[in-house]
Amino acid sequence: MSYKTIICGYLYRAFDSCEFLFSTIIVKCFQSFLGHPSSGIVADPAAAGPGLGCDRATAQLRVFMYDLPPEFHYGMIAKAPFPAGEIWPTNASELPVYPGGLYQQHSPEYWITSDLLTSNMPDRRAPCTAFRVSDWRKADVVFVPFFASLSYNKYSKSELHTDPNRQLQKKLEQFLKRQPAWQASGGVDHVIVIHHPNSMHIMRDELCAAMFVLADFGRYTSDVANIDKDIIAPYKHVVPSYSADDHSYHDRDTLLFFQGAIVRKEGGIIRQKLYELLKDEPGVHFESGNTQSDGIRSATQGMRSSKFCLHLAGDTPSSNRLFDAVTSHCVPVIISDEIELPYEDVLDYTEFCLFVKAEDALQSGFVINLLRSVKSDEWVRMHNRLQQVDLHFTYQHPTQADDAVHMIWKAIARKLPSLKFSLHKHNRYKRSKQQIYNIKQRSTTTRTRL
């Protein structure tokens, strides 16, 4: 081992205790002296392409991530068990591939974890918004790397005698409550991704102090999840991205497109009623569909050849259909009164979407006349805006500036002031609680001696 390697090793171990100014110096030390890291995950420079790189000095968020056992994350999808004692994949090329099909739509947990995992590796060239630190006391937030949606999808319908999803949730809750970071904040500064509406259903109430990353609030009471403390993240679109979109207004022959389940429960009752109103209108494609490969293929073709795409409330206020429409550059028509949208504090959806209240939509002729009133130049502006914002709803690894992962981290960063406020309130009686604990301990000790 060369003296340069030894020096860089010492610098790297001291990395998190250095001031921000020295972080870039240490990274450059690794890159220039070694040409590669001594260990750990490294983002593929070729895949990442040109970028600003990731360092603690420029990242908006400093994030501590628990080293949970693989069974909570990549171990669910790894082809073979991790070697004994190993928690994470040894390098970026060995990151297990997330399952395909509809599993993909609730995969933000995977993309966020993968981005954070590679953030503090010296050869990463992709820019970052969040940087992983090794000391929770120096972090803005604490990230919990549990693939909750995958756990639900993979295990909840298991034929095993025990329910692994339920067991993992209980183990996670026990783990977190023992951690000094959780005890110090009551969990207020912790981030947990529970994107599938049924994920973490056993322990979500117990862990509700944390900031959740969700698809919507459809299956939560307001004391468990709400817009003040939590983040809405986009679904991962199921249809392919339409980067080579050359369809103009006149090339899209279909006026309005919907393909999906028509009969739904709860808030989705409106689908059946709208079907009856719209099915025979000229220029409207309103049909049931499936989620198999042929259904996805026909939905892709249909959205790309349509001017407007219908997003209706289903079992929950949101669905991946909205984000399929966005990436197909088909102007979404949103009829879902309770929907919450990702990054709406910085993104004006009226620039590329139309919103219709459910009660208005059920008036005969209302929706179709509204769409026919949109002139070609107005539609073109909305279409152009869709192409501009498409990246904000795209999950990928390595990440790209302002893609979905970066937008989610930025949304978390915008919560920091209110998070700090909650944390300070939580700590108001910290000294008093410690005093009460000390009194009880002394009392217990006295009784024991007697």
UniProtKB/TrEMBL annotation:
Residues 59-369 form the Exostosin GT47 domain. It comes from the Eukaryota. Pfam families: Exostosin_GT47. It is a single-pass type II membrane protein. It is found in: Golgi apparatus membrane. The keyword Nucleotidyltransferase does not apply. Keywords: Golgi apparatus, Signal-anchor, Transmembrane. Belongs to the glycosyltransferase 47 family. This is Exostosin GT47 domain-containing protein. It comes from Sphagnum jensenii.
